[in-house]
Amino acid sequence: MSKEQLATAIGGGLGMLVLILDAQTALSGAVEGMRLCIWTIIPALFPFFVVCNYMTGSLSPRFLRPLGKLCKIPAGEESLLLAGMLGGYPVGAQCIAKEVQAGGLSRQDAHRMLGFCSNAGPAFLFGIIGRQLGSVWLTLALWMIHLASAIAVSILLPGRRQKIAGVQKSVPRSSSNVMGASIQATAYVCGWVVLFRVIIAVVDRWALWLLEQPLRTLAVGLLELTNGCCALDAIAQPGARFVLCAALLGYGGVCVLMQTLSVTKDCGLGMYFPGKVLQGGISAILAFFAQFFLFSQNEQMGFQPILLVCVVTCLVTFWRIRKKGVEKSRSMLYTIGKSHLLGQEV
After folding, report:
1. pTM: predicted TM-score of the whole model, two decimal places
2. For residue 279, which of 114, 119, 187, 246 sits 20 to 30 Å off, Cα-Cα?
3. Among 246, 230, 304, which residue's Cα sits nearest to residue 280?
4. Are 46 and 123 in contact (CB under 8 A)?
């Protein structure tokens, strides 16, 4: 038995033990997760899955070509950038994987694009985050920071704008294929959301209550983005709430990571994880400076150790990518079969 199989067996056994000993907490967490999916996740994401699947492979708007060149996206695949910016997690990643399967994108290009072409969409931002911030203008500023950080990551990630020989251009997909892929992707997302809501409920009862509210919100957001963002109203200081929200949106959370792994399948995750770590740090830094223009002096977030952590995280991540290369970087966070976190076969 390999180490990964042993770790999976131990994790499954511990999970079964928790479900037996604390079934009521797990059940309440699952119910909250289902409620979150029905009232928030499905209405916000499913239409975007359908539209983006139709759009990808059949649309290459010329006005995106300068931005595509800046982000080093292969010519003719600029619609993937549009899906990644507007579709929401993990629509962009799913569209990239579909293009690889259809022969419209090389695996090398896909691995790099996964680092910045999957982001929180406007439906999530203005539908959920807007309620927590209480201002359309603050939500718009947060969205601009989110998009700017994604573009910054695309510039920082190594790679050139290329397309290998022999790659065929994909053709528009039929309605049945689009609907099936959209339903499948939505089911993957909802399944992971429910599972992580159970995990959060159990961890919250036995451990997270020991933390102060800002750290508790951060821990929940790092695990599952939607639950973390819904808990932002517990942070009294508007500036701190704004910066923390920007960091969580850029990073995406472990649950989004699992959702992305589900929709990318054989394509792997490529540079997704280092790209999201880098984007989360850049988003926090941009939001920290933006708050001086958006909030009054008594509402601003002062210089705190968390900002220094974001700066150091960005520097270390960028150094590791440049020095080691993403293909040599290994992670023990999660392994399924021959896929591991950075999308390389083992």
Report:
1. 0.79
2. 187
3. 246
4. no
